[in-house]
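Note to self: the last two entries modelled the partners one at a time, which told us nothing about the interface. This time every component goes in together.
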Amino acid sequence: MAKQQAAVVGTGQTHHAAKRLDVSMAGLCREAVDRAMADAGVDWPDIDAVVVGKAPDLFEGVMMPELFLADALGANGKPLLRVHTAGSVGGTTANVAASLVQAGVHRRVLAVAFEKQSESNAMWALSVPIPFTMPVHAGAGGYFAPHVRSYIRRAGAPEHIGAMVAVKDRRNGARNPHAHLRQPDITLESVRASKMLWDPIRYDETCPSSDGACAIVLSDEPTSGAAAWIHATALRTEPTTFAGRDQVNPQAGRDAAAALWKQAGITNPLAQVDVAEIYVPFSWFEPMWLENLGFTDEGQGWKLTEAGETEIGGRLPVNPSGGVLSSNPIGASGMLRFAEAARQVMGRAGDHQVDGARTALGHAYGGGSQFFAMWVVGSERAGVR
Amino acid sequence: MTKPLSAPLEVGFDYTRSLGPTLSRFMTALRQRRVTGVRGSDGRVHVPPAEYDPVTAEPLTEVVDVASTGVVRSWSWAAEPLEGQPLDRPFAWALVLLDGADTALLHAVDAGSPDRMRTGMRVRVRWADDRVGAITDIACFEPSDEPALEPLDDDGDPVTMITSPVRLHYRHTASAEESSFLRGLAEGRLLGQRCPACGKVYLPPRPACPTDGVPTAEEVELPDHGTVTTFCIVNVPFLGQRITPPYVAAYVLLDGADIAFLHLVLGCAADEVRMGMRVEAVWKPREEWGPTLQNIDHFRPTGEPDAPYDTYSQHL
Ligand SMILES: [Zn+2]
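The predicted structure of the combined assembly is written out below.
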């Protein structure tokens, strides 16, 4: 399939915090957008179209961000699209923006994703009592905890793996000046001593609730010193429930990964990918997604984590930015993974740069592990190895 | 077919909104009975102020005072006011161009009758008695050629946040198949349906098998006992929670079903609940039954040996 090559030429993100009371939603988005445009060395006339994504509407009570943010996103007189795939939306937004360049529709596209969790209550929004049902739902943690338990049982994983991921990601977050949580002194013992929220998920194994935004400038040609060339993108979806659904290792994720690696010409992901930014809102999802993505065989993901291979300096550094466990503005979290992957291959990841990163994965999932979005970016144009 | 069941679903939350620098000045001024706008790159004065210029997208910072009087540019009569609207009697929605502004503000005009409304008419702000720094500080507009009340300086803190209550009133309607299931529950029965293509038994039944896309019709009555496939222990309290933590939220796979559903497990210590544990329903007293899964108060251990992992591993 011949298509226009596309690259990330600039990324920007806010300082993420529990409450960014100093800015409106528009101001929050602009903090990220202004940084992305400066990083790319472009100005408003250079942008042909804008794509915006945010978390589900009940999360912040904003139904049509494309209406009230058009001024702030410089979209007046330009195409403005809104993307909506629950927690994976940031990743999906980046993929949609990439497709507009790859299809030759636009030369330069601005992609933006945001969330102001402080203006709402995500636990409440995810637990609306639907008539006739049992009101046992308890937010995202309550949804995912039983499936984490299933993973532990199925893989025979030792209990401390979840805590190991938390320690790694929070320490990585301490290297990232934008991170919400920066905990250089966190230890396995302190994580395991933290409160059990949704057994088997502990407080320290849970993402924070953050305000933040992320923006990416995509282009058909480099506009500044560096570019992250898009080698592959993939999106897949599956229903929340059906008889025999694999909730631990969902088929949509496996299918998306298989399509992604094929498109990127990657036959051995563990050997050929230098760094991965994977959507891990609860620590156990690191080994679960390592398997789902095909980095290891089923049931083996936790061994990569246990061996320290997912730390910076390991065979596959996972979430050197600190990941979702260090910052979680839900609507933006997926795009942050995609942007951090790009920063790595652009050599612009600062103190959490992985040496020699040339090929990187950005990954997001959303809903009840229903929506999967991913891309592979490289320091060279696709097809040049 | 009998009518599907439906019930009210009320969703309400008081969202907050950080205003940012531009709207903060607008809201703070309203508290002082002043209306302000912001000057755009083309010289126009935007009321309410735009945080970013509609033409250049640059941040706008030049605040301009405008009058509390102006002209109706267009209007529409609201004969039946709704909850949350500025007035509880019939009124006009109007685009009001305040004197000194270049863009119109949408607000209510308390005209009493549509006969008193016309495009081009003069109106003035009717200020609310208790002002908090919100658009509702303008109670409404009223027809008048006279000036509005004078500004009233205060030494309060700048307004940096507003509360934006949202109240949604839905009527939630179950599908025909779920309604049959719910009516069965009202009689203490658990009625699933089998897919004619894959043979899987769904409880609650769906209008169509999610895998095969074909309608399911064959009714299957299931027993009120089964196996816990997996679970979590909820220790965290949150807004709107209906059950006091800690509690065990478990996927229960009824014997003969091919899909588990989420319910509550009691009757043993939370840390004694296990994957594979055999459980049975504890029904509420019959006089409390209705068309809801809540007729089953909870599931409790039966004391049987645990189900072997292989018998439920494909349901995880
Ligand atoms: Zn079927």
